[in-house]
Known about the structure:
Layout (H helix, E strand, L loop, with lengths): L13 H17 L54 H11 L7 H4 L5 H25 L54 E8 L11 H13 L16 H10 L1 E5 L14 H4 L10 H23 L5 E5 L4 E5 L10 E5 L3 H9 L7 H22 L7 H10 L4 H8 L2 H6 L10 H13 L9 E4 L2 H11 L16 E4 L7 E4 L1 E11 L2 E14 L1 H14 L3 E8 L19 H7 L7 H8 L11 E5 L2 E5 L1
Antiparallel strand pairs: 1-10, 1-11, 2-7, 2-8, 3-4, 3-7, 4-5, 5-6, 9-10, 11-12, 12-13
Helix pairs in contact: 5-6, 6-16, 16-18, 17-18
Amino acid sequence: MSDAGCYSPSFKKPSDVLRMRKKRARSETFGGKVSSPVVSVDGVRPFSPGPLLSAQCRAGGAGVKRRNPFANIENTYNENTYNSPKKRALSHTVCGIGAPDVKTTAAAGLDGKLLHERVNAGTSLREELLQQQHQLQKPAASISGDESLFEEDLFEPVRSDPVLKNPDGGAVCDAGVSDPCLEFPADWSLKTRLLFTSPQLFSWAEQLKAQEEAQGLTAHCRAAYASLPANIQEPRGCAELRCGFQQCLQYWQHPSFSWLSLFPRIGAERKFSGKITPWAQDDNLQQSLMSDWSVSLTSLYSLLKARLCPYFYLCSHQFTVLFRAAGLNGAKSISALLTPTTRGLREAMKAEGIEFTLPLLEDKKKSRDASEVESSRQADGEDPAKSGEDVKSEHSENEVDDDDEDDDDGFSWLQEMGVQDKIKKPDAISIKLRKEHREVRLDHRPESVVLVEGSNTFTLLNFLFNCKSLVAGAGSQAGLPPTLLAPTAFRGASLHTLKARTVNVKTRIRTGYQDVCSLEVTGPIMPHTLHALTQLLKPAQKGEFSVGLYTHEPTAVLNVPICQTSEPDTLDDVVQDLGRCGLQQSTVQQLAAPTTLGRSALRQLHVRGHSYSWRS
Length: 616
């Protein structure tokens, strides 16, 4: 081939090229090339994954592991990586942890200043990671979505399977728990789930006998409540406890369809899709459903007015209405809260002559006006200790719509300057649009909650009968009347039972694992149900349990306080007037007291030594 003109002496076969590359790689590895010294910090893994590395782990510096570009420094050292003592001890032995310090030797070829910076950076990083690990190992006093975290005197759990979560789905908040009290404030928001956790077993709530179930249903219909002892030694053998538990799970609902879950209604289009809805295309059936629904709503309002029903909820696909009897939550008369609302709905209510207020906006305006008056007094040098009645009188005298004044006299200063002809004023349409923009901003927000009191609630009832937006005209909920929920029976109502199940799990503590018993209750949980269950569980669980509360978020704002112009009735009078409403006397006392939660709702509830503490 040497005689041929196409032959090239530098030509090599592919096999020869691969052989030379392998030979070059071996020569570079064992030929005495020294890699650059690497500064390592004890206890910190430089790369992920892999065990803790140090200078001694890299034999002669050969085969240094390259940096993983996808490694996250926050995940390179955590408590779950080496949770086994054997693995941790083996890792420390292999990597040479505990051997003489090699930082000085590894940094021999580096500049002194650069070495100092790297060592300081590694030390600060190690301290930060160890501090994060220490914070994760601290016992938390919050209730999770799947398990409960207890106080330090009972448990000291750390992260384990299943992962602990907040009832809202986010991280566990660090907000302080309230001081222990003998009673917790009433929460008027609707709950979708309750998770009770306790070191004591919930076996007494499993597999009720047919006789116990029948007695519980009868006691609920007759509003007969049995008194339980302060401490029950054998809860599983206590028939009164099991009957009372069945009684607490009952509620009344209209309409009722076995194949449809009619709560919640807001944002539940996906849950209704694919279900059989024969009324969607049948106008006669829709009219029949609305006629029965109107009868049920009228019956509920009559019971509420006679104080035979303490409260009830109306849940539509767009808003929720809470009707309460006179005396509850400190109200002097019947009250109704509607949330969330839109500008169109509020305008329609005004057109029907319904007088209402926006309590959250009024409270915000009052606090802003009070701060402005206080600052102006301090600027003028007046006495800041002026009585609150004088402040209120000043605001009542000057309580004129600021927007109207701006529209009429907002441009009078232009005439004083003599430039009224040179400045183009906004027209009436622009001014109207600016006003509407301020009102539209409230739509579907908690600040849009509407309060109706007194005789206006009856006008609101008539408005709901004729409101076209009360029933969805299209979509998966088209033609379906709103859901009515009440603690007592009414015309057309069906008796339903909340679902309850018990689960026993294990949670990690410092000395090992400990059993945690849980009781889960799901369904439309009303305020009286929460209070009745806590009163029932206190003697059964020896006064030690926690509750995680899952709130139907559109109803969380129903805890807004109601300001009354006249003095409300005393608590004893309210309890006496509502003695036939079907609730326990202690529950009526709790619901009659003005709530202190504001626009928030209960998220966690702890019972320690028969005392309550909570988070909202």
